[in-house]
Fold this protein.
Amino acid sequence: MRFIRHQHLVQLTHLPYVFPVNCYLVEEQDSLTLVDAGWPINAKDIVKAARRIGKPITRILLTHTHVDHVGAVDHLKWLLPEVQLYLSEREAKLLAGDKSLVEGEANVPIRGGLAKPGPMKAKPDILLKEGDIIGSLVSIAAPGHTPGQMAFMDTRNRSLIVGDAFQTRGGLAIAGQMRLLFPFPALSTWDKRTSIETARKLLELKPSLIAPGHGNLALEPQHLMEAAIKRADKELSPFNGQS
Ligand SMILES: [Zn+2]
């Protein structure tokens, strides 16, 4: 996996030029937090990257339960049995195989390849809620791509790991905004309207950096985020295409 460091954050990328899938190591005083877990074959590379940094992985945080974000979890739990797995309560319901919607959620089907109880055996040790503090990270509910997606902001430098709330591959886009060069996050997005609300919420946090599930890190991303929100509003407008 490609290894790119920015301050406390290391981005690990599987197939960066063909079909980029990212996961992240966040460096703490004496440990590492892994955010997302790529594909099943990525476990050894993730452990190798931790060795290169010289600290143990003690936690795995999942932004959401699509297969390209949880793939290596079981293998990692086997290699590193002490590791604690964190997941939002809402995503834990999906992981348990229950795709029913919860009251108040947009009435559209949940999409994308979800990790089922079969292929992924690990269960979360800790259920996350908005505002939970995990080392230097704070959890932020970021629904839209899936109903229970979480983003994680590093309180030391405001860098923001967004899962698939945004992608940067093919140009910065909100979940649900189609990028022909990399259409997969859009194709597996649950509700675009909720995604746009989340994008606004994440912009208000004034992130110094966006670390997406797919694509390169975006430094000082606020102008790009604003432009993507404007474009998404236009795409959803009932007058779109009529003038
Ligand atoms: Zn996804």
Q: What stands out?
A: The helical segments are 43-53, 67-70, 73-79, 89-95, 184-187, 192-204, 222-236. Residues 64, 66, 69, 112, 145, 164, 185, 188 surround zinc ion (CB under 6 Å). The chain is about 25% helix and 25% strand. The longest strand covers residues 21-27.
